[in-house]
């Protein structure tokens, strides 16, 4: 084994000495036309996607293959050795840069990176890079959105008459993965050209197809929003017997509006500042409008009930029939019932003018007692009548409460169903314009 290793090292040294004699890596390897570079991506790992900054960070690795006829040897002269590995800085390398990146750095330096040379002049290099590139976020379907983020490479100087790049789709054994929030389900390669100062240059796009994982937003924002709105509507339109509970309903609705406004602020903080309102934002706005209208209706009911109760006006029979309610029975007044018990006979009236002071005092006291009793009965009847009016209007508004409770809960469920329906829509097609 040691002998074979020494022989192999000697043959490799001989090959390198022969093929690199007079070799100049600064000169392009022209072969009857432009240099043809075949390249594709074999590794893609999404590190993070910052929506509000519209930046995506990846670790990628792409391969490049081309021919250099100056680096050809006959394997039969070197004990059948058909390939060698040399440092990258020994040969000419196609120069492509990521022009839509905020930060790009090679994970291997020129001294540590190697290339593989084949006996027929073919060269292969694998370039691992960390890239932080611009990604134009489309937030209309958030949190069920699908993003297309590209890593765009271009030649800084060589035109198509000097170098042609043939970009192919990734092989089946390539490795691509997303992160905790994004699922990377596909990577496509797009070959393009662009014009600059009358010259055509190559441009390659590695397009990452990203699908957001929406479970976090559904459990943290959507579910609490729906529960808060459903319970708020239930509390606002739950029937009450007087004004006290209705005042509490208005306070409950206002508190729910405040809570949903906070949730909307959380969504706005995660999204880029643009004219596009995300789907989740529309849903929260619709729920806020529903709760606001519910609070307005409850306040209107409160004002109307107070108005009629203060006027001591009973609901009309037509209104009761319209609401399918039984008509109330008028309560007979008891203020003058049994008044004859306190009416004195003519004899008592005559005694009032009697000269006996004790009799006059007794008659006056009895008359005062009778007046006091009549006043108390009058107040009791007024109080009972007011309670009757409150109870009748409470019956009327209870029917309104049940009606609006069904209507608003149905609208709330409909808004949630329309929102969740987007999750089952097909994945959008790849756009022509990515950058």
Automatic annotation (TrEMBL):
GO terms for cellular component: membrane. The chain crosses the membrane at residues 215-238, 250-270, 282-304, 402-424. The keyword Transmembrane applies. It comes from the Eukaryota. Its main location: membrane. Residues 13-214 form the Neurotransmitter-gated ion-channel ligand-binding domain. Residues 221-317 form the Neurotransmitter-gated ion-channel transmembrane domain. It is found in: Membrane. It is a multi-pass membrane protein. Keywords: Membrane, Transmembrane, Transmembrane helix. Pfam families: Neur_chan_LBD (PF02931), Neur_chan_memb (PF02932). GO terms for molecular function: extracellular ligand-gated monoatomic ion channel activity; transmembrane signaling receptor activity. This is Neurotransmitter-gated ion-channel ligand-binding domain-containing protein. The lineage of its organism: Eukaryota, Metazoa, Ecdysozoa, Nematoda, Chromadorea.
